[in-house]
Structures are given as C-alpha cells and as structure tokens.
Amino acid sequence: MSIQELEDFFKSRELPAEISTHPAIKIVDVPKFIETQLIQIRTHGVKTPAYDRLVELKEWFLRKENGGEMVSDS
C-alpha cells in the first residue's frame, strides 16, 4: 500500500478525537497521530514502525465499518 493510498483512506474518513484500538492502545488525538505518522513515512519511507501503525489503524477502521469482521484490503 502506498503512502498516497493511506493518506487518501484517512482523508475520506470522519476521524474521532480519540480511539482505543486495543485494550493496551489508546490514541488520544487521532488526527495528530495520523499527521505525525505520515510525516515519518514521508521522511523515512515505508520501512518504519509509523507505516505499520497506520496500516494497523486502517485495518481497525475497516473492521469497525464492517461490524467487527476481519477484512482484507488486498
């Protein structure tokens, strides 16, 4: 998945202020989180933890949109 695809995905969503994607993971400023992760990816490329975090967040959004079902974006 390209950086542009990730950007487009998140731009097309209404972002909540905060979310809990896992019992141990809470994002308290979702828009700022996405912005900072994209900056890291644009600067360092997709082989960074920031890329993995955004892909996981995208998968979380897709699961929520599909009623909790696991989905593949392939």
TrEMBL record:
Any matching Pfam family: DUF6965
Cross-referenced InterPro entries: DUF6965 (IPR054238)
Domain DUF6965: 1-60
UniProt name for this protein: DUF6965 family protein
